[in-house]
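agent> call fold_tool(seq_1)
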Amino acid sequence: MVDEQLQAIVKAYDIRGTVPEQLNERIASAIGTAAVEVTGVRTWVVGHDMRDSGPGLAEAFTQAATKAGADVIAAGLCSTDMMYFISGKHNVAGVMLTASHNPAQYNGMKLCLPEAKPISLDTGLARIRDRAAEILADPDSRDNSNTAQGTVTQRDFLADYAAHLRGLVDLSGIRPLKVAVDAGNGMAGHTVPAVLGDQLLEGLPLEIVPLYFELDGTFPNHEANPLEPANLVDLQAKVREVGADIGLAFDGDADRVFVVDAAGDPVSPSAITCMVAEAELAKSPGATVIYNLICSQAVPEVVTEQGGKPHRTRVGHSYIKAAMADHDAIFGGEHSAHYYFRDFWFADTGMLAAMHVLRKLGNCETSLADLVADYDRYPSSGEINSTVEDQAGKIADIKAIYGTKCDVTLEELDGLTITFKDGSWANLRASNTEPLLRLNVEGATEASMIRLRDDILSIVRS
């Protein structure tokens, strides 16, 4: 049934499914109509990534939106953060046709209201889903007879986007850096030459060593998901081969960035959060910085040391963005390498985070590894996934066992967080989309981290 199909592809924060089985032009058209009707917004920007299905899905959304009375700015090839830039700068709603880091057979949509305000299940996506289901079940319910058809305007925003980011972080005076960049055949191959190179603007003191900049939605070299260590291997090798000062890896829609140092060793996203928080707090002393509960304890420590106010949230960009707006936060970081900026309409942009790191590195003579050493304060496990059918039952088991210990505090803000008096902690939470439990552990020492990790895993996987 169509409504079951929509239930399957409409996630907490976006829409994703296989093409054409789960997501096709008919469904994109229904969503286009529903988005205009539900939100009441009459101007939309529509962009798409490099996947083969993107232009057709974008055109279907566009045609439906204009028939529903909306004017559409067709932005063509975009990174997701470029779509947020257009939405924020021009005060229009937006849709980005992308499946981010998912494999080639997928596509999807990320939607936002004007000023890049996210549309999640709780803020309109569920109503858009349900209205689209009605349209698909009864096309006659899509009555545009009394609505003047909107217009379509084609426009390229790449130069404006690049200039805006350069206006936020000035890299012109840094020392020369050699920067290896793995675009993963994703949208960073489109945006990096414009922002960090000399394709559209004056050149910077950066020697960009490109890796997989060719736009190719089949991902012929590796999946565009740098969160998986296997997808960083080529960048790590390239950094060592060319003697780069730093390596950057972007995901498919280029809204996330991962960093490796000159030795090819990955830099923790929590350490990047600390580094960027320092830079943002230097501009806005005393401001609030948002971080999620699986970030290192080093994050609130550094924020406090820099005179800022740390605020902790659940995992997930809708929670981060809501907290940023509520607290007028200057910056927000997630351990998944999403970075959010008040100067960027509270939206996430991997490119702006990368520029902050480049400026920090370029304004000193030390290596990146030395720079981040102060932020890597505690041993961590990284995220460990376990396939578990009864996630709630296993979490209850862990709660019952650790709840009897006198040196433990339990918290259920997002899954279960166990905190020990020595500062060691573990968070166990269920995936929203798969039968997985996700475990993150940080220890006061390497031994305490390993012991806590292994104890919890033995229970989860028993």
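agent> call fold_tool(seq_2)
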Amino acid sequence: MRKYSSVLLSLLVAGSLLTACGGNNNNGNTTGNKEGEATTAPTNAATDNAGSATAAPTDDITQRKVTIKIHYPTPDLTEVRAQEDDKIKRFQEEYPNVEIVKDDWQYNVSEIGIKMAANEAPTFFNTYATEAKFLVEKGWVADITDLWNKYEFKDQINPVLQNQFIIDGKVFGVTQKGYVTTTMINKKMLDEKGVAVPSMDWTWDDMLNTAKGVADTKKGISGIAPMGKGNEAGWNWTNFLFEAGGEIQKIEGGKVVATFNSEAGIKALDFYKKLRWEANAIPQDWALGWGDAVGAFQQSRTAMVMAGSDGVIEQALNQGGLKPEDVLTYPMPAMEKGGKHTGVLGGDYLVINPNATPDEQEMAFRYITFDYFSDKGLEALDAVLQQRTTDGKYFIPPLLDYYSADSDFGKKTKAVYDKYTNVYQYSPDILGLLDGKPEAQYNTQDYYATMSNVIQELFSKKGTDSKTQLEAAAKTVQEKFFDTIKVE
């Protein structure tokens, strides 16, 4: 779905400090040219033992001046900025030939086209799993297959995440970290109302009954806060579409066809109607975006919220004052007993600007992966954990990181976590239940936006007909977006 500052903070400290979304430099500060021709090597010379001067080899990228514009964290992320400064310092110690320009632009689907047209897009920038097909088809990301194939740690990268940016066998991005949508439960609120904690292998009925049992409309307390504003409303609901066995779209005869107006979609909408009208378990002011819903959970005004886990827990523990034992991370509920606990699989990626020179692209790739699988990265992580201990804060690792959990580096990372008592621990049972389903590759944000309108109508009007709503939504998405796509 989308990336927020709290999620970004967790990513940066857990993912070995890779926050930067850097960039290409088109202001003349680089010696490379836009046609990708070989740049002229600096006139540095080395003197051998005989006293003769030997010119530096022109095919050594470390001997050529390169400028990359990195995406610098926003001013509110002071801790993250300090970490990024440390990364820049360490990178330039190894690559003194690289000039780094800071830029705090955040990827935005409505701005990337303008950035590209004006030659102002960074050398590399962050994006989301949903954007892969869109960016590739627009020609706004570089094919980095050659750089990827030369990368020594590529086989230890988490394949579930990385595969989202491998299209037709070509690599177009590098995973930072990912998530499977989960449900966070405030156990303290359940205990106060005498509501039993459900089994982790829970169902829609279990979620409904838990939410109904905790909700107290007179006190402004909801049992669950499904997002009801912005694209995140459609994103939240899609988990239930997947759990019911539904799909967003399919490819048929070279065309993208909407399929969410199915029996599975009707079941998913009907469940939302139960939460709203039968259980009266959602907030009275239900028009909540991501920040609103997570804020309600942080403030103990709702007992459950659905999102990527680490960002929610970060706020609940370090800003809301909750204790780790109060915050339980569950998979999404199965529609019925024995069903899959399917959650939307998403992630954050770094992609390289195709307009950058070959030298810029290579240095961008080296910067992206600089702390990956490195002892320096582990040392940096250890330093962050030490600082968190000093500050009296908890550290929340992501459920899914850029590396495979069973890789050598994954084991080394766990060993660092095990040294500290302030690292949030997920239940070992959750990993065996998580079932991630990737977001659709075509116009996903447009689909989310359309479904958000459906959710808002359902929450505001009693007696809506789910089938009618979905048919109208599918017609809109099909005619306005999917019909414009030609699949090769």
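agent> summarizing second result for user.
The longest helix spans residues 78-94. The first strand starts at residue 45 and ends at 47.
agent> awaiting next instruction.
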